[in-house]
Amino acid sequence: MSTKLTVLDHVMVPEHKIMSEEDVSKLLERYNITTEQLPKIYHDDPAVKEIGANADDVIRIIRASHTAGRAEAYRLVVRRPKK
Fold it and tell me: What does the domain layout of the chain look like in residue ranges?
């Protein structure tokens, strides 16, 4: 008997959400950037796989912060380069 581990249920893994196209547009406009200027995260990252994100999706990562209370980060999902 095996138990499926849900990565996002672990206390050390922050909340990950796929952003809608509308939310991505607002984000890019707010910071006057393109998606390519966002920090990257690989498509095979366990949390990315768990939420079902694909390459070119933008995800919002929400962390608890001692100073800010809540901190949001954004990442562009990319494919890992083939060796």
Answer: 13-78
